[in-house]
Amino acid sequence: MITIDAMMVCLDLSDIDDKLVAFARSICERLEVRKVYFVHNIKVYELSEDFKEWFGDVDLASEVEGNIQDIVAEQFGNVADHEILVSEEPNTEVILADLVKRYKIKLTVLGKKMSDKSTGALGTKLLRILPCSMLVFPETARFNIQKVLVPIDFSDASVHALRLSKNLSDQLRLQLEIMHVYRLPGQFFPLISEEKAVKKAEEVVKGKFADLQKRHKEIAGVPYTLVRAANKSIAERVALHLEKGRHDLLVLGLKGNNPLPSLSLGSVPTEMYNTDINVPLWLVYSEEVIK
């Protein structure tokens, strides 16, 4: 059973907050979540002089907390133990990373607007700096999750994401599909026929799947799909398969063995985050990686 000891929900006082808090409620109703922290950081230095002149010495933190309390009361209720945390720090990423460590957060829930409304710069920074798994909820996503897609590359990180997805699917009775995107070494064409190359590549990948199923018996019955990247990136192929298969959740494993934090995500999770998809994106670190 998947248990989340502490979950953090990042709010930005925009229209997406209501959806994000409601989504947090949906998570708590379906999984065992012991404590939820609703957080917001006020960047005081960004407030205009006009604002300061109009409102003077107003206790902005208390006002923001009251606003969040209203949203939580309406969209979350008392479905789980929760607390509202409002800070006034110049660097949002740093204070959120500190909260993750201080409260031992296992999962951070983050809202994401479409690219025509936001650059997503803060979210990208949080993905690189927060020492916990993240669940990204696009503003166009649905709460009702029935089908889960987990792309794998046979790395330890992707296998961890697969095993978590299987546990989640068993617990909530969801449909789970595994996906692998492969590439062909184009420099050998036309020395080798494309048909033979595809056949050989798929034989190799099927062998890897057979080995994976032997090592992890619990995933033996999970259907998998092989997709050739061809002229598209892996992330583009994943996005197309998401839409075609009408999946409701995408799970990706995050790698953390790179000494440079800015390079630890991997290109596919980063590109998927920056793609306008309509399903929640669960980016998963294993406990070993976080430690």
UniProtKB/TrEMBL annotation:
Coiled coil: none annotated. Residues 145-269 form the UspA domain. InterPro entries: UspA (IPR006016). PANTHER family: STRESS RESPONSE PROTEIN NHAX, UNIVERSAL STRESS PROTEIN UP12. Belongs to the universal stress protein A family. This is Universal stress protein family protein. It comes from Pontibacter korlensis.
